[in-house]
Amino acid sequence: MLNFVICDDNQNILNRLSLMLDNIFVKYNFDAKVKFMTQDTDKLLDYVDSHKVDVIFLDINLKSNKTGLEIAQIIRERNKNVYLIFTTGHLEYAMIAYKFKTFDYIAKPFTPERLEDTIVRLFDDVSGLPKKYLKIDNKNTIIDENSIEYIKRDGMKLVFHTTFNDYEAYSSFNKINDSLPENFIRCHKSYMVNINNIKNIDFVEGRIYFSNGDFCEIGPKYKSNLTEVLKSYGVIK
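Now predict its structure.
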């Protein structure tokens, strides 16, 4: 799921933009949600620091001690990958806004058609990024690969266990194997692990642990190959 955040000093615009986005998500069956709206730039920065955020709609002319451009600079320093979309009634800011790796710039008052075009292009861009987002089904369910801790086989389904949620899809390891980057390795007949998110490994217990306390099993058949891969990644010596 892509998490959207909106910051604007006008509550009516916040409500309208959120509703418009929800309608677009439903229309295209996009796996996305507006998770947070605020008129307060400090609350925006706090939220970005403590939550998974994929897309930010940011007004440039905020009634704040910082402009939207200044807030964007702070956000970009903390998050290199978040999609930034500026909204404003002042077109003269357009060229300045793009210096922050801006995905789009929408002039107010924006229309549903203009917004829809931006969101469709954004999802096309996300789907086209290799080794960053994984599309797990035909319903446009998209997962940030970096957030996946492990993938578990559960009958005819795969459960993608991420830092924030679990996602299920009718698939198999063979079907998704070619779409995953090299840091995903089979560690058990029922588990595939993301090496980059491993917190600790206990070969005696046969378990791989993650930062939130979750774990997955190590199968005897996969232990030798897993050990070699972990050594090559510098996870173990």
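The first strand starts at residue 2 and ends at 7.
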